[in-house]
Amino acid sequence: MCLILLAWDDHPRYKLVVAANRDEFYQRPTSRAEIWEDYPHILAGRDLQAGGTWMGITKNGRFAALTNYRDPFNHKNNAPSRGLLVQNYLQSSQDPQSYIDSLEDGGRAYNSFNLLLGDYETLFYFSNRERVLRPIQPGIHGLSNSLLDVPWPKVSKGTDALSEVLHQPHFDAEDLFVILRDREYPTDENLPDTGIGLKKERMLGPVFVASREYDYGTRVSTILLVDRHNKTQFWERSYEPLEMDKWSQVYYEFQVPKPKGRLKDLPNIGKDLERRLASIGVDDIDVLMELGSKEAFLRLRQLEGDTCYNTLCSLEGAIQGIRWHNLSSASKQELKEFFKQRKI
Length: 344
Known about the structure:
alpha+beta, Penicillin V Acylase, Chain A, DNA polymerase, domain 1, 2 domains, seven-stranded antiparallel sheet
């Protein structure tokens, strides 16, 4: 990829939003995104020249995406394909830290890269320029051919546009594709200087790249939406060379199961709180995370006296280590006030 815009845990409906462009030479052989026959849990395109892929997901909720770090002075002609970094992660069952630890010398054998990897519950960033695995913080982020959130013109413009779209009452994939089709050139003074010369910097400056002279441009745009219930929607548009308005599209949709867990695995849960919750039918993490404020009230009201209010207060500590999106801070406060007023 050459531009990845993403919103992580920053929208009331979607936990992950990705809008990305892959720029490449027009003649480089590539297959469109599909379910891989040899690894039927993987959905991704394929680089048919060097192997691997630039972005993909799995049916159990793993996600990875890659951009090259532009460094013409330290390019290794015999380096392994960076696309294998995405492929190997999607094929594995390793957590992000274990996977990065398995890379010899922090991935130094590869040419410079940026890697996003994780699942629908955690997301991380790693570059072999820094060699530090960093959790992605909630918010909107942009990644091009420098490090994460370095404000190249296309990154800044893309993240601003993504933020505007996500603040609309309603949006769809087409709103995100519009962002990725922006062909406006930045001014020369705002372009990065990566050592490739001003002419190439200009060519690579827009969000959507198209160059007849270099036989190079945006080949694919990808949209990924993952909602709070792990419903996954994936669009990919493949463009004709130099033709932003001539494209073919594939679309996939599937449901990723939520991870199972036990209440006792939550921080600060305690045996007494676990027992009280189990008595009202809250016996695993999935049930806890699915409760809305009304349902939470109805369940907790079954507990008598101080036990009811104390349980709610205890939950404040127990849920610090998880995401309980369906019960907002305002809803929890409302319930607290309700209990206080009635001296429950």
